[in-house]
Amino acid sequence: MRILGQVALSIVMVFAFTGKAHAYFDPGTGSLIVQGVIAAVGAILVAGQIYWARIKSLFVKARGGDDGSGDGWDDQASSAERDRTPSE
């Protein structure tokens, strides 16, 4: 935690004691920044969509309910129960 405080203090000091840069962002640089932000948001959304079933199953399993999604967690248990019960 101490290192985090030192890093934060360093960043604040860099911005506090920096003079004017007399620079500008040209349209190409601005476009690159916007493109990077859009790509980052898209990557986060796709990764979230891929792992959403796993994240959701953690909460559903902890709560003990069945959401009816058929993700295979409860299907294995029900087939094991059917094998134990005698059929008539």
Question: What is the overall silhouette?
Answer: flat
Low-confidence stretches: none
User: What is the mean predicted local confidence, pLDDT?
Assistant: 78
Please give the share of residues in helix: over 70%
Based on helices, strands and strand pairing, what is the structural class? mainly alpha
Order of helices and strands: HHH
What is the CA-CA span between the terminal residues? 66 Å
Task: Give the tags.
88 residues, mainly alpha, 3 helices
Would you mind describing this structure in some detail?
The protein is an all-alpha fold. The protein has a domain at 29-63. The chain is 73% helix and 0% strand. The model has no long low-confidence stretch (mean pLDDT 78).
Compact overview of the structure:
The protein is an all-alpha fold and 88 residues long. It contains three helices and no strands.
Protein topology:
Elements: H1 2-16, H2 27-63, H3 73-84
